[in-house]
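Recall the central idea of this unit: under ordinary conditions, the amino acid sequence of a chain determines the structure it adopts. In this exercise we apply that idea directly, starting from the sequence alone.
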Amino acid sequence: MLKTTELTHLLIKEHLKLGDTCIDATCGMGNDTLFLRGLVGDQGVVHAYDIQLDAINETKKLLKDYTNIIYHHESHELINISNAKVILFNLGFLPNHNKTIKTNKESTLNAIKNILNIYINNQDMILFINCYPGHLEGLEESNCLIKFSKNLDSKKYLTTIYQPLNQKNAPFLITIKQKTPLKLL
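Accordingly, the structure predicted from this sequence is:
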């Protein structure tokens, strides 16, 4: 069985190619940013967002040899890049740091709504959202995102959830992708 982050990386590999632009909406310790950078190579660009300066600094330290990372020390609510193929959220808190600073349902939901508005006619972009319902705020955030994803227009969006069924409050993945309109012959 794959961990949620391993499954996410496997799915992203199918979608992201050399030269693409992508966004790590919660760069944390930099592991996802490094993974994304490996897929887009020198020709691509990775935008790394985080509200915590510690997270930005940890990511910069890990990726010090790469120049195609653009750092945004700000909330993922402020994402305004319109050409990303993949946008990755790894929600929760920064490991081994202040656990009182964490993502929350309001800012994450606002970020996702904003992104969907920016990418209103872009069928190439896909959102990957790793949720962690193991603590109270994470559970609220996870439930909010499930409800939002389930209620997106099924004619316009394909939303999926990858979730262990026999583990209480286990991490899980939500994906959101705009459907490609059918072309009549």
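Strands lie at 21-24, 45-49, 69-72, 86-90, 126-131, 157-162, 172-178.
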